[in-house]
Each structure stands twice: as structure tokens, then as C-alpha cells.
Amino acid sequence: MKNLLALALCALLASACAHNQVSVTTPTTPPTTGYASGPDTPAPTSANTVDPVPARVAVSDTTARPAWLKARIAAVLSERKRNPITRILSYSYGGQTVYYQSAPCCDQYSQVFDSQGRLVCQPDGGITGKGDGKCPDFEKNKANEKLVWQDPR
Questions:
Q1: Which is nearest to 101 in space by CA: 133, 56, 140, 131?
Q2: In sequence order, what E strands does the chain have?
Q3: What are the percentages of helix, strand and coil residues in the chain, rounded to 5?
Q4: Cut 0.70: pTM above it
Q5: Per-residue pLDDT tens for 73-124?
Q6: 59-98 per-residue burial string, b: 16 or more CB within 10 A, e: under 16
Q7: Are 85 and 104 spatial neighbours (Cβ–Cβ below 8 Å)?
């Protein structure tokens, strides 16, 4: 009895759909005119939404590097090459010159040091991407970017 009811339901649905004359075409269906540039090929409805942005190149800082910074660079070079590569940039921030060292990878903190080599804060990275919260205005208030060093390997 159950099978008979299911069969009757299927027949009813099939007859109801047959009356609608549903037609499906796919992108592989050739245009009726035979030409792809004819009226069957619609024009794009919007402009490209991904505009290439030129990479921002920091001005290179050629001033003498403090001993603590030379030691940080030597430590990075003693390890295997990181991806992305390590970069150290200097900025004016909070009325002083600070040094920003990029994070080695994913969810790790970048670090900002004062001119004496003391850790000021970790402005980005971590699980939230917002760093340690000690300098939430760093991105907004940093100025005078200079590339101090980047891993040449």
C-alpha cells in the first residue's frame, strides 16, 4: 500500500511538471546565432572590483644601527629563512624613534622596540590580529617609515 501511494505521488508530480515546459540551458550551449559576440552573449554588468595596488616601498634607513639591533639581525640570520621574510622598519611614534620587526608568520606578534632595544609593544598579530593591546594606535599614529633591514636570503 505504501509503495502504491509513493508511485501515485510521483506520477502526480511528473504530470504537474510536464505542463510547465521547463527548459534548462548551460554556458556550454552554443549561441543561436553561432557567434559568441552576438546578442546571446551578455555584456559584463560591473567593472572589475579588484584594483591592483602598487607595493609601498619604504625609504631605506642608512644610519648606523645600534648594537642591540645588529644582534637582532644576527639572530634572524642564524635561523632558517622565514616566510614571509623578516623586515625591520623605523618609525616616529609617541615622540621617539621606534623599530618595528615583522612577525615570522601567522598569528605571531610583530614587535616594536624603543631606541634602547626595550620592547614597547606588539602592535599586531596574535589570534585576534590586534597584538598585545599596549599600543592600539600604532598603525594610525606611526610616521616617517624607513626600511632599516630586510632578510636578503
A1: 131
A2: 59-60, 87-93, 96-101, 111-113, 119-121, 143-150
A3: 20, 20, 60
A4: no
A5: 999 999 999 889 999 999 999 999 999 999 988 889 999 999 999 999 999 9
A6: eebeeebeeebeebbeebeeeeeeeeebebbbbebbeebb
A7: no
